[in-house]
Write a structure and sequence with these properties.
about 350 residues; alpha/beta; 3-stranded mixed beta sheet; 11 helices; elongated
Length: about 350
């Protein structure tokens, strides 16, 4: 019974954390289209680090060409072996080779040649809407910010596997958006960020780590006392594709996890520990049920699983509404199983 009581305590802590995230999200201020005045000096350069992105890049460049707010596009080629550079050049945008290897080196290379007061980073495989640039610059202007974190949504949502990824990532965006607005987080996705060029912390990117250009840059700005805001406007959203299979998703998350070795944030560490504890507890009960074949152990496992499903369901509904992702009962019931596979994997 001692382990059962501990399990209930861990799940209660998890439920409290989820409730806090949902409450913070509800208080996140949304940027209203057209309600803000663009900065007088609002020149914007978009840096697109690219490695072997010839199939994706033309779509993004078409989106950027169609912006309601003018942008200068700079593609930084990161040792591509396909015709990424040729594709970008043919579409009339500036292309330069990276001075190093990896996304961070490409961003640093781009930052050195930017001359506009604002600079954004987009991944080559995202899509953005007509008013994306306008919304991001407006958010910076309205809130006197040195960095703006834009939302990222995974698409498509046709199948359960795709919806799982989109919903899980949407939950992460809800946590990040609420945490930024509360002042407890300085995180985002490098696929959709805007910075004051004068304040971008090039020296803090820690190129030794496989991932984390977003977190290292934003945390450095926060430590320096600069303002970071979340842009809740749907026009600011960037869409990117879901992973095709489990190995691809695991490898992606492994890259993300690598940055934790060089990144310090109390809430991030606490949440990582709590999620790991919940996953290990559920896994332990599942293994015990399979090995012991005991009715009481099986009943306790089902109860704990039901609690986790109910708590996750509240967060999934929040993410579903926030990011226009379809959600059904099967998605909710299968989410804890799939998420456990993701965490263990």
């Amino acid at each position: 019974m001692g382990f059962f009581a501990l399990s209930i305590l861990i799940l209660s802590s998890y439920a409290w954390a989820i409730g806090k995230w949902i409450n913070r999200w509800r208080k996140v201020s949304k940027v209203n289209d057209g309600a803000a005045s663009i900065l007088v000096d609002s020149g914007l350069t978009v840096i697109v680090p690219s490695r072997d992105e010839a199939s994706h890049l033309p779509l993004l460049l078409a989106d950027l060409k169609n912006q309601s707010h003018s942008v200068r596009v700079l593609v930084v080629d990161d040792q591509s072996e396909d015709d990424t550079m040729a594709q970008a050049s043919a579409l009339g945008v500036e292309v330069i080779p990276s001075e190093g290897v990896g996304k961070k080196a490409a961003i640093i290379t781009g930052m050195k040649v930017v001359k506009t007061p604002w600079v954004a980073t987009l991944d080559a495989d995202v899509r953005v809407g007509h008013d994306w640039a306008k919304s991001m610059v407006q958010a910076a202007a309205d809130q006197s910010a040195q960095a703006v974190v834009g939302p990222v949504r995974l698409t498509p949502h046709a199948h359960g596997w795709q919806r799982f990824q989109a919903l899980e990532y949407g939950c992460m965006m809800v946590w990040i958006g609420g945490g930024i607005s509360k002042g407890t987080l300085a995180m985002g996705s490098g696929a959709n960020l805007l910075f004051s060029h004068a304040h971008y912390p090039i020296d803090e990117l820690q190129t030794d780590w496989a991932s984390g250009d977003d977190s290292f840059a934003l945390e450095a700005l926060r430590e320096a006392g600069h303002s970071i805001v979340w842009n809740g406007d749907q026009a600011a959203r960037a869409d990117t594709a879901t992973a095709p299979d489990w190995p691809t998703l695991w490898m992606q998350r492994a890259r993300w996890a690598s940055k934790a070795q060089g990144f310090e944030n109390e809430e991030s560490r606490n949440i990582a520990g709590l999620v790991a504890a919940v996953s290990l507890v559920l896994l332990a009960w599942i293994v015990a049920s399979a090995l012991l074949l005991n009715l009481r152990v099986f009943g306790a496992t089902c109860l704990l699983w039901m609690i986790k499903t109910l708590v996750d369901g509240a967060m999934l509904r929040t993410a579903s509404r926030a990011f226009e992702i379809s959600l059904n009962l099967r998605d909710i019931m299968l989410f804890p199983i799939r998420y456990l596979i993701l965490v263990v994997g």
